[in-house]
Sequence to fold (343 residues):
Amino acid sequence: MSRIQLLNPRLANQIAAGEVVERPSSVIKELLENSLDAGATRVEVDVEDGGIKLMRVRDNGGGIDKSDLPLALSRHATSKIRELDDLEAVATLGFRGEALASISSVARLTLTSNTSDESAGWQVTAEGRDMQAELAPAAHPKGTTVEVRDLFFNTPARRKFLRTEKTEYNHLDDVIKRQALSRFDVAFTLRNNNRAVYSWREASTQIERERRVAQVCGPAFMEQALHIDIERSGLRLWGWVAQPSFNRSQADLQHFYVNGRAIRDKLVGHAVRQAYQDVLYHGRHPAFVLYLEVDPSTVDVNVHPTKHEVRFRDNRRVHDFIFSSLHHALAQVRPGDRLESET
Ligand code: ADP
Ligand code: MG
Fold:
């Protein structure tokens, strides 16, 4: 008798969900990425009970065609790449075609969308069971709303790993803030248990951008931060770095983006640490909001399912560029500033 069997699609999706859907904040991250990829200029997030009971992301992006709606929930279904070559220079945040399939296998998911302002919209629902989604007409302006309820309702082992509502809420708040810093041209709103937490308008001028950074990182960060913008041989690094006197006991105020994607990368971390090495006390951490722009074909984003890591084609060059840019900026700070510390 044959012992090897194909997994049924639901189980396959639940296994994949283990990689991308760890907690409510991972769902929020995927949904926000989809909204941004759809060209939204306004994204509204609603959560209840730390996202465990409800997460709703509503955008004014391009929407999903009626005929594509059921496909959007299928695994390995994406509108973002078609062939391997596309992956070489992927410009969207998503490309794996896994998020919605994974989320809908471990929660109750409703997707409502409309591709035009004229017609009515359509809705599909999937409740952690099969991937046969039912289509129904539904009113919706141009754009998409994804509603995710009862995360892990059918996977008790995973639900046990969830922390308190407060902790889960803090994680998802972090994720939204991280995204809000990646796209100043998009308005972000968060409501928690039906109460408005923040509502940030599009920031197009430098003053508006700095206001958003202050809202996310705190006014104390912005008041002393150095603004940098350095370009050299096809690489650009811009953003705000804290003076050495504004240092932290934890690495909790560090935002680094590569081509608009928030990443946590060893190479980048090392380059930044090295630049601060001589001006920071041992055990203290720098604070920064930095944007690295590189030719997309010189960076591989398909390294990890959560897409938090990247791989540069020319490590050494990127490392040296980040190090020397920051080193140079920090060298302009008066030496007397370096001994005080905050937090
Ligand atoms: P991926 O983002 O990797 O393509 P997802 O599972 O996150 O995979 O989404 C599947 C597809 O559903 C996307 O490729 C996109 O076409 C569509 N989609 C998902 N969310 C949205 C949205 N908010 N607006 C428009 N299209 C969306
Ligand atoms: Mg996606």
Remarks:
- The CA atoms of residues 187 and 201 lie 5 Å apart.
- The chain is about 30% helix and 25% strand.
